[in-house]
Amino acid sequence: MAENTNRKPYPAELRERAVRMVREQEGAYGSRWAALTSIAEKFGCNPETLRNWLRQAERDEGTAAGMTTTEQERLKELERENKELRRANEILRKASAYFAQAELDRRNKP
User: Which one, 30, 32, 45, 103, has least CB within 10 Å?
Assistant: First the structure.
């Protein structure tokens, strides 16, 4: 059975609270994974999801390597813009070819 991929993302406040809780309570657990599992259950999310939130928070703070949230958003924006420009260029290329052919046809008429 297919999973529902149309879920709305968790609210930012919930993500921030869960990450903060992991950081505050991590020492009370035997491992980071144990903390993630326990706290994720309290927030109703998957431990792997919470681990990803924690890793992203570390990247955003500059304590871990990788793209920050701002950089990821900018990249997505640039990719959308690039796709739109490619589409516009293709339309212009086709229009140019059409008008060039029309001009040749007009010149070749007696």
Answer: 30
Contacts of 21 (CB under 8 A, 6+ apart): 39, 42
| Residues 96, 57 share a domain | no
| Tens-digit pLDDT profile for residues 36-82 | 999 999 999 999 999 999 999 999 999 999 999 999 999 999 999 99
Show the DSSP H helices in 1-110 as ranges.
12-25, 32-43, 47-61, 69-108
Kindly list the distances between the CA atom of residue 70 and the CA atoms of 21, 34, 40, in Å, as whole numbers in the listed order.
Answer: 23, 30, 25
1 within domain boundaries: no
Same domain, 16 and 55: yes
